[in-house]
Specification:
Elements lengths: L1 E5 L2 E6 L1 H10 L1 E7 L7 E9 L6 E5 L2 E7 H9 L4 E8 L2 E9 L25
Helix pairs in contact: 1-2
């Protein structure tokens, strides 16, 4: 799972195996370590919830969890929909949340595109 943060937006991109794990177990997560100390890490996760506003976010020190309704995740995982988007109000601002299927890059090797969805424009001629 890839995490991209830019300004007040947060984007998670998942490959097919991660989407499968999400649907089967209800959660996928990754962690990044910034230093040797035990508390110098950040975990980011996508977790399914039975119902409620979707997507939403749970923030705890050292962890960001995007919450997604199980029904919305099922529809997204089994269909042609690429992105789930939403936002949450954060004080006088808002945080945009995007959850996307991770597509293969057209200009990368097969090894670099491992566990990605086929790019919809692969093989297209301009």
């Amino acid at each position: 799972m890839k995490l991209r943060i830019k300004g007040n937006s947060l984007r998670l991109r998942l490959g097919p195996s991660e989407v499968h794990t999400l649907i089967e177990s209800g959660r996928v997560e990754e962690s990044i370590r910034f230093a040797a100390e035990a508390n110098a890490s950040l975990t980011y996760a996508l977790e399914l919830v039975p119902s409620g506003p979707s997507p939403s976010l749970l923030y705890r020190p050292h962890e960001i969890t995007v919450l997604l309704s199980h029904e919305e995740a099922e529809d997204w995982s089994s269909g042609d929909q690429i992105t789930i988007s939403g936002h949450i109000e954060v004080g006088s601002d808002r945080l945009e949340i995007l959850i996307e299927k991770d597509f293969a890059c057209i200009d990368r090797s097969a090894a670099e595109n491992e566990d990605t969805y086929p790019h919809p424009k692969a093989g297209a001629v301009c």
